[in-house]
Amino acid sequence: MSNNDDTTLVGNNGNNHNKIIKEIPSVTIRFAGDSGDGMQLTGNQFTDTAAIFGNDIGTLPDFPAEIRAPAGTTYGVSGFQLQFSSSEVYTPGDELDVLVAMNPAALKVNIKDLKKGGVLIVNSDSFELKNLQLAGYTTNPLDDNSLDDYELIEIPITKTTLEVLKELQLSQKAAVKCKNFFALGLMYWLYERSMEKTVSWIDEKFSKDPLIAEANKRALKAGYHFGETSEIFSGRYNIRPAKLPSGTYRSISGNEALAIGLVAASVKSGLKTFLATYPITPASDILHYLSKHKNFGIMTFQAEDEIASVTAAIGASFTGSLGVTSTSGPGVALKTEAIGLAVMTELPLIVINVQRGGPSTGLPTKTEQADLMQAIYGRNGECPVAVVAPCSPSDCFNMIFEAVKIATQFMTPVMFLSDGYLANGSEPWKVISSSELPEIKINFRTEKEGFFPYLRDENLSRPWAVPGTPGLEHRIGGLEKQNITGNVNYEPENHETMVKLRAQKIANIANYIPDLSVNGDEQGELLILGWGSTYGAIVAASENVRAKGKKVSYAHLRYLNPLPKNLGTVLSNFKKVLIPEMNLGQLNKIIRSEFLTDTIALNKIQGLPFKAKEIENKIEEILN
Amino acid sequence: MEVKEVNNNINATPAYTAKDFASDQDVRWCPGCGDYSILAQVQRSLPSLGIKKENLVFVAGIGCSSRFPYYMNTYGFHTIHGRATSVATGVKCANPDLSVWIVAGDGDLLSIGGNHFIHILRRNLDVNLLLFNNRIYGLTKGQYSPTSELGKITKSSPYGTIDNPLNPVSLALGANGTFIARSMDRDPKHLQDMVKRVSEHKGTSFLEIFQNCNIFNDGAFFLYTEKDTRLDNVVYLEHGKPLVYGSANNKGIKLDGFTPVIVDLNDGVHSINDLLVHNEKSRDLAFLLSSFADRPGYPAPVGVFLDIERPTYEEQLYSQIEAATAKKGKGDLDDILKGTTTWTIA
């Protein structure tokens, strides 16, 4: 966790104009500005650079749903928070050590998260009457002593950037756009980070526009040199590389990990992958990524709507490809009937839900976990599907690979529950090699003798017999099936048999998934049970509590339907169970109904992930 | 079909008969339903198309006609309401070698599935799309459909419908369809010819079939299908031939400015040389012909309105994959696992 008090003087290194370098364990920074100011880009560049240096990192991009909301307004503010550290990091940090505010609106929205005594860097050029009014300030906060609690650093970032770029003769508009690189350069200086990664990124990104590339590089370097030569900062900070397990690392976001995981599953199963999808925030990046990787044989299909996308994926699965559809909650609502068809026809199907704030259109760019009930129960009829959820950005890779294994082995739709925070957040990931990944064994039925479309194997899974296979011509559909033959059948007993078979097949997946492991004592006073993206905050909170000498255990569910077989035992070993969720208590309800356990819910429904502190406070309240 | 070669060549298509395409399931349409004839004509046509049984896939949505796949001894998928076209899209993309047939009713294809209908046509997947148009909802027992004529009295419109009907052929043309045809359940030979044409065309082949629902909308198309009225109310379209019709081949269609007009070939003024000559390659003419449905007293054109070529969706889908692979090389999983930037921790 961040702690500026714990500094050690390491002295100057001779070329830094006598500025001292303080060593600190970790820092939490937020870049904030207009949604057109390039704050996401700035944050991502800083993330990559710190990651390459060897820090562990957690990130939280937070941006409005409007692409370019009116400049200067509070609702147009885009932020990117990151914590980088010399030890393991589980969250993007609770309180900010540093806030970079590019305009008054960004200051207004974000100042509450800056800790007392924290560094506040503002672009003083933007604090003029119009922007102050747009942000709702009646007086200029830079002049009215309202920021006395912070280490306020005013820098005329716009003017300085324009001055530096003067001789390039860019348009005023183009030159002003470079100011985020000035801010980034300044932060690189302050935290002793190399500009190298960003310089090469600029060269590649703007390879077709060398003038803009040059302008951005000059702005970046100007920011860096500004820190070095101005007298504003008394010193710099160094955050040593984290002691992560040795190996090769990369930075990875949740959506990226998911897309790569799908490619990996496609390669390892030998299945053609057909991603059919309709653009929706925050899932569209999956489509973008896979569209670029056609040389893996991945087919991407941007359908006319959500229903067309899931049904096309089902058609592909029927034909022996891996049908995948990606969306967010509103899209799942539209796909629901088709998911029922895939349950009835018992075809593999991957349904990715990158959850966002709901209901309805809700909060498109904000995170939430309120689609768990929808995933498990939200269809007509008795309609069970497998449900999995990753716990971190890089875990999206593992769990999508698992999802493909389950879908193909059990001939079932699998719902994959990511969320906006996981999808857009990134972290360092220890690269694995393809040889470490297991094969996914696919058994297409080709034997004519004894073939029946609904004759089941030991898992209760039916055969995958695809069109083009001679002698296995058969018909499937959404009407109730006769057991074994698959013919249309309305007999009462048959229906009950089939409903139970479909339920049992999903229940049987519990024999295949790993037991739930507990971190900490196997039994005790308090277990924190989580699922999905709350993992980081739960771990950080637990470690903080343990650091104070208290005992707490935690366990995280990555398989939500069916639940791990040992969950009942795990729960019974603790006096109290706390379930933090970014919803009104959906897992809590499920656990209570399944296990008759008097669990305690901790809920946050603000479109933002938990802070470690929020969970920590609850743990202490329970333990005291 | 090369019947003699069957025994010598395992790759040859077997010498099928219509019976080979009938499944073991009892057909459960109402006795007298026009669907029986369509099923029979499709089964009779298939042996001459040279397609192996295992490569045939019939995909349907929901409705009376959508039970069709259950009665075909081929691969079949009875999907959900309106979505046969999009399921079929996935089937065709996943395996372009399959011969994919979509069977849909007017409610299924044009109402709940209207969106997918226009998009499959503009994409031009190489699939065959059969619309069983009976201008009524049969399976839900008699509500009006998007092709029911204005003012129609049905269970759900006791005072007559107030929504203007869709013209499926015009809609298909507007959506940039490449093959658009019409036939009738009660004209078996013509229907068989059209099934063949549909199969031959590369691209989305749309065939509207006038189909009688003898329970809820009996006789909806009798003007066009019955012996005593057919010839005076149907103009059979034949490529390169003038638009002549009538019980004594006594009527024709001529163009007057932009307007098609009906002329009497026995009036001493007009001759066959004055008439419009059908051209399956002309979208303009196809639009004109499709408008007959909206012109009272005009004959219903039956036959191929349009048959033009455009690259199919799946061809382009696969050629993009091939081009990307040729340019970048076959994807190496380790490359994308590593990404563009890595660092090492000792």
Describe what you observe in this structure.
The complex is a heterodimer of chains A (624) and B (346). The model of chain A is unreliable at 1-16 (pLDDT under 50). In chain A, 54% of the residues are buried. Chain A has three domains: 8-238, 3-Layer(aba) Sandwich (Pyruvate-ferredoxin Oxidoreductase, domain 3); 250-436, 3-Layer(aba) Sandwich (Rossmann fold); 524-623, Rossmann fold (3-Layer(aba) Sandwich). By secondary structure, chain A is of the alpha/beta class. In chain A, strand 22 (574-581), helix 19 and strand 23 form a beta-alpha-beta unit. Chain A contains 20 helices and 23 strands. Chain A has a seven-stranded mixed β-sheet, with helices on both faces. Chain B is of the alpha/beta class. Chain B has a domain at 3-225 and 311-320: Rossmann fold (3-Layer(aba) Sandwich). In chain B, the strands form two sheets. Chain B has an eight-stranded mixed β-sheet, sandwiched between helices. A three-stranded antiparallel β-sheet of chain B has the order 8-9-10. In chain B, a hairpin with a 2-residue loop joins strand 9 (251-256) and strand 10. In chain B, helix 1 (34-45) crosses helix 6 (188-200) and helix 3 crosses helix 4. Chain B starts with 33 loop residues before the first helix and ends with a strand.
